[in-house]
Amino acid sequence: MIMNRDEVSAMLVASKVAKGLTWAQAAEATGLSKEWTTAGCLGQMAFSKAQAESLGTLFGLPDEAIAWLQIAPYKGSLPTAVPSDPLIYRWYEIVNVYGSTIKELIHEEFGDGIMSAIDFSMDIKREADPKGDRVNVVLSGKFLPYKSY
Known about the structure:
This protein is α+β, with helices and mostly antiparallel strands. It has helices at residues 5-19, 23-30, 34-41, 49-59, 63-68, 86-110, and strands spanning 113-127, 134-145. It has 2 domains: 5-68, lambda repressor-like DNA-binding domains (434 Repressor (Amino-terminal Domain), Orthogonal Bundle); 86-145, Cyanate Lyase, Chain: A, domain 2, CATH 3.30.1160.
């Protein structure tokens, strides 16, 4: 019996490794972006029945795991307030150093509000550079203004 979504994510990652699959192949199976599909496979998004079944076929998942992929998850996957994984910590560092700048510039351009993480997209690509390849990350979220009442 599968007890939670984390167990399904562990099953997906184990199958990915065992079968030599990529997240891009999982995305192709679902018809979604590799970024969104990966987030879903790691337990942060819910898939439709057809998408979950496609992943089940690709990864060889049991019916119970396919059912779990369709349940709205508890979002937020970091085990600690300050991440210890070096790559994730660098994102934490970016927000600590540049967060107030990002906030200030968004407010200057759009007014008082937030960038949505719900109406949101992300694109991660490798950018060739003679001094060493670069990681190009584009985040795009709908602006949601605060309302007066």
